[in-house]
Please model this.
Amino acid sequence: MEGRFTRPLSSDPRHVALADLPERETAYPPIRDFALIGDTLSAALVARDGAIEFLCLPDFDGDAVFTGMLDARRGGRFFVGPLTCGEVTRSYIGESAVLRTLHHTPQGVLEVTDLMPIGKRGDGSVGGERQVLRMVKALEGQPELGVLINPMLDWGTTLPDFRQDEDGSWQMEFGSDGLRFVSDVDLAPVAPGALAGSCTLETGETRFVMLTSASPDARPVTPDTPARELDRTLAYWTQVNTGCKPDGPFREAIMRSAVTLHLLHYNNSGALLAAPTAGLPEVMGGARNYDYRFCWIRDATFVLHAFFSLDLPECAENFFRWLMQAARHSAPRLGVFYSIGKEHDPGTRELTALEGYRGSAPLIIGNDAQGQLQLDGYGAVLDCARMYVRHGGTLSEEEQTRLQGYAQAAMLDWTLPDNGLWEIPGSRQHHTYSKAMCWQALDAWLDLIEMGAVQDDPTGYRSEHSRIREHVLSQAWNAEIGAFTGAIGRDWLDASVLLLPRIGIVEADDPKMVATFKTLKRELSEGPHFRRYPTGLDGLPGDEGHFMACGFWAADYLTRAGRLEEAEAQIAGLLASANDLGLMPEEIDAATGEHLGNFPQAFSHAGLIAASVALEEARGARRDCD
Model:
């Protein structure tokens, strides 16, 4: 293969692995420093310096290959970048998920293009074998390129055993087929389970490194493979985004959110991941380290709204069909979340081999919230069905029957206490948002009956629909506090009540809702950022950050209250906390701007889309009235 070393590997086995890679300011880059690449089947997180530090294969919820984000010493990473530190600038190519990073070093400018190839194959399918492609070009001078590949399998417990094939590529066992690393940079073992290589590039010279399946059926990697896969992937994103043309001042941010949601939309089933990562802390050094590689039912209405609003009908169709199938075995009851692929009990497993991001432990794979009762799911699913029908969809007889079961369950269960959408530990309470979402479930079902999409007698539903509304508006109101509280008979605040006008159970200009917003703004916000609930309410150690989605709910409320200039300022303030690529976390430390939680978070990006679309619709209505 082309591309010999310009200088030999050191006899020191730590050569590129430790000595020659640029030193980081800290062992753990800030979460906001990571970029996302993916192929709608899996995804990788790429640090600014060129290290892939989180990747699971063959799917999002598969086994870990690199987990340097969760343990800088033991997690493993896939580094492709300069051997000398310098200024870094990066961006996605157009409205795609192809990342381009420029490293400005004393020796020259090195360009690294990262992608997980995606696009129509020869057989017409999307995806196929999993690949990570890293293309390198010297734009100026003679930059030095370093490559380090040190996977750590089974979440930090197993080193791979590499073997070299006759064509110069390196293979390792992983799953049923194994993985293969192909490169025109000479690679050699430098330590157990680690490959490395380096070379000096002349201006205009290119190199590549590719991770791909070692299956006998995998397509061969040839010199023209990198350019072909790049072209195919860019063409895919152009086609996907053809109809996605949002308006308004936040168009660029909305498009990045659309691409991010598309990346998290699992192509094999239609599910939408909450986030592609596991274990990133909501409290640095604390115990709030969860696995978000599942699809939460509570997110559903925001996800489907985003897909329809951005004219992504294929995504909307696939997600709705998944939603209808996900809970078929438990219907008419709904789980809190579901696995994105084949049905299985996610269970939980503590990862004792990894120290966690900046020492944040314990690390838990899986999620133990599945046994909770969250009544808001009924409203989410039935609102999705209403949305789907309004956009021209039709419901099968089986789907109509299942949806009827959800409507009847909401009518019967709304009086029960539940765990609420925030999954707060402890005894169940009569959460205001949960009851409002049961109202939405009946509201959507009555609309579906009126539209002729389903057949049912509306009488009983109408009666209970009115009863729930009266109960929420009277019993959730706390005159002493001056707000709708988080639960009936309680005095704590909850940012989810900002959604009551969006749900439709109360108008935004209702005096009680106006007072509620004022109270929430005073007690839960810092700048444009809102906490979910008061610090200490959940009884867990450490103070979590401000929840990004809640800030967008505040913008949505302001829009519905007719305060459009304030709503725009609220959205702009939140977007100032996104990273340089427009990616948003689950939570943020409002004082420092530090990103917290699993990243990037679908709920945050869907919240931006919902708030921005509502704002533009309100502006359009105002223009029509002028």
Remarks:
- Residues 1-19, 121-126 have pLDDT under 50 and may be disordered.
- The longest strand covers residues 131-141.
